[in-house]
């Protein structure tokens, strides 16, 4: 796993830091959705989080720190949801359940995902590199699930196509965040997940 970017805090209590930063993230996500990252101010973020600007600066140093925390929370949630499947047998059922967990997480956090992909360019260079590493880590988790399915005989997929297929899983799920306005008119999230998963698996049959 890539080494975390350190967000400095003058508070020493780790439990309190985690609690306050969760408040900051929730307030910032709502604000970024309404105003955009660039128009939102740290004073507005503090107000949305429910405390003073002075208290805010005890837990972050810059507005970019807040955006980083939003992005990092997404990847931590993805890792939490997908990690258990890495130890399961390489079956299509395991792959389907992992895809479901990931896509449903995007549904639950579609605002956060949209903010991340729209605003990552605003982060410092080293932080952008960290975000890209976490993104690759997410793709790699699906790549390993696909390799397990190949090893068990459930899929016939050449190694040269594994990363492409893993990226397709990730991108197809993100479509729910980016085009939610279009999909939700005709599909519930469960229908979207089923359709995307079966279309993906059907497409893989062409490589068997």
Automatic annotation (TrEMBL):
GO MF entry, a single one: DNA-binding transcription factor activity
Record Pfam families: TetR_C_24 (PF17932), TetR_N (PF00440)
DNA-binding region: 41-60
Classification via InterPro entries: Homeodomain-like_sf (IPR009057), HTH-type_TetR-like_transc_reg (IPR050109), HTH_TetR (IPR001647), KstR2_TetR_C (IPR041490), Tet_transcr_reg_TetR-rel_C_sf (IPR036271)
Domain HTH tetR-type intervals: 18-78
Keyword set, alphabetical order: DNA-binding
PANTHER family: HTH-TYPE TRANSCRIPTIONAL REGULATOR PKSA, HTH-TYPE TRANSCRIPTIONAL REGULATOR RUTR
Name by which UniProt lists this protein: TetR family transcriptional regulator
Gene source species: Caryophanon latum
């Amino acid at each position: 796993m890539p080494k975390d970017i350190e967000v400095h805090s003058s508070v020493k209590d780790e439990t309190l830091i985690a609690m306050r930063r969760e408040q900051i993230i929730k307030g910032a996500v709502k604000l970024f959705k309404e105003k955009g990252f660039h128009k939102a101010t740290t004073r507005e973020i503090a107000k949305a989080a429910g405390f003073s600007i002075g208290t805010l600066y005890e837990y972050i140093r810059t507005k970019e720190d807040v955006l980083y925390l939003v992005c990092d929370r997404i990847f931590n949630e993805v890792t939490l949801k997908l990690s258990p499947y890495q130890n399961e047998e390489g079956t299509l059922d395991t792959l389907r359940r992992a895809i479901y967990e990931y896509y449903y997480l995007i549904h639950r956090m579609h605002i956060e995902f949209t903010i991340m992909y729209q605003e990552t360019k605003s982060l410092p260079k080293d932080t952008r590199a960290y975000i890209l590493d976490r993104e690759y880590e997410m793709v790699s988790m699906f790549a390993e699930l696909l390799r397990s399915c190949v090893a068990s005989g459930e899929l016939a997929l050449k190694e040269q196509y594994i990363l492409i297929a893993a990226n397709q899983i990730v991108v197809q799920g993100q479509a729910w965040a980016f085009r939610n306005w279009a999909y939700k008119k005709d599909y519930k999230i469960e229908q979207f997940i089923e359709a995307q998963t079966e279309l993906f698996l059907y497409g893989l049959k062409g490589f068997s």
